[in-house]
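Sequence only, no structure available. Ideas?
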Amino acid sequence: MGYETYTGVVAREVDTGEADRYLTILTVERGKLECYARGIRRQKSKLSSQAGLMAYGEYQLFKRGDRHILTSAKAIETFYDIRMDVVKCAYAAHFLEIARDVIVEAQAFPEALQTLLNSMHVLCYRDLAPDFVSRVYEIRILALAGFAPLLDNCSICGEPIQNDGNGGALFDIYGDGLVCGGLNCRALAGYVSPVSRGAVRAIKYVLECGAGDIFQFSISSAVSAELAYLIPAYLRRQFGRDYDKPGEAERYRAFEREINGMAHG
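Reply:
I predicted one. C-alpha cells follow.
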C-alpha cells in the first residue's frame, strides 16, 4: 500500500454508485491504468474539474492491493475548446478509443501517448480539418503498433512498386500495404483499391517524419477523400474492430445543418 503519482490523460470514465466513477488513465510511467474516483460526480468535488475525460495532468493514487484510488489531481491541459464542438469531441473520443487499444496495462508506451496528445492539441488549437488530423493520427498509431503498410515494394512478390498515379499500384486493405499490378499478385491480394501517388506520398511522410512534424504538410481534397476510405478500412482490418465516432458526429452535424436550412427556408 502507498501513494503513487502518475502523469497521463483520462481516456475513459464509467459512472458507478451515486457519485463515483471508474477512470482509465493512459500514463507516461506504466501505460494504461484503471482507478476509482470516489465522489468525483458531486458538485463540490475538487476532482471533477481536474480529472475529467480528456484531461491531461498529474494524478495521485493510493494503491491498496491491486486497486488504485484517485486521491488528488492537477490538470495541465483540459482541451476545453474540443468539448464545445460536437464533431471535434467525437474525433477526440475516437483518438482516445484507439489509444486505449494500443496502450496496455503495466507497459509504458510514451510514443503512442505523445502522438495522442499532439493530435489532441492540434485538434483543439489549430485550424486544421478534423478528418485530416484523424488520418495523420491513425497512420502514425498504426506504425507505432507495428502495422505500418509497406509502400516501396509489393507486399506479395517483393518487387519495387511502379506507381505512376494511373493505376500502377493497389492498396491491399486486407494485407500489408501496396500490391503491384502483376496478375498473380492481384489474384493473391485480399481486398485492393487503386492508390494515387499523392496518397502514397502522404502516408509515407507521416510514417517517416519526426514526431513533431507529422502535421506539417497538406494534401489535396482528392487525396483526402482517398485516405478517408483507405486508412479507416486498413485500421479496422488490422485492429479487428470498428471505430465510427467521427462518422456519427459528422452525420449529426449534417442533420443539424439540414434542420437549420429547413427552418430558414
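The chain has two domains: 2-78, 99-256.
Hope that gets you unstuck.
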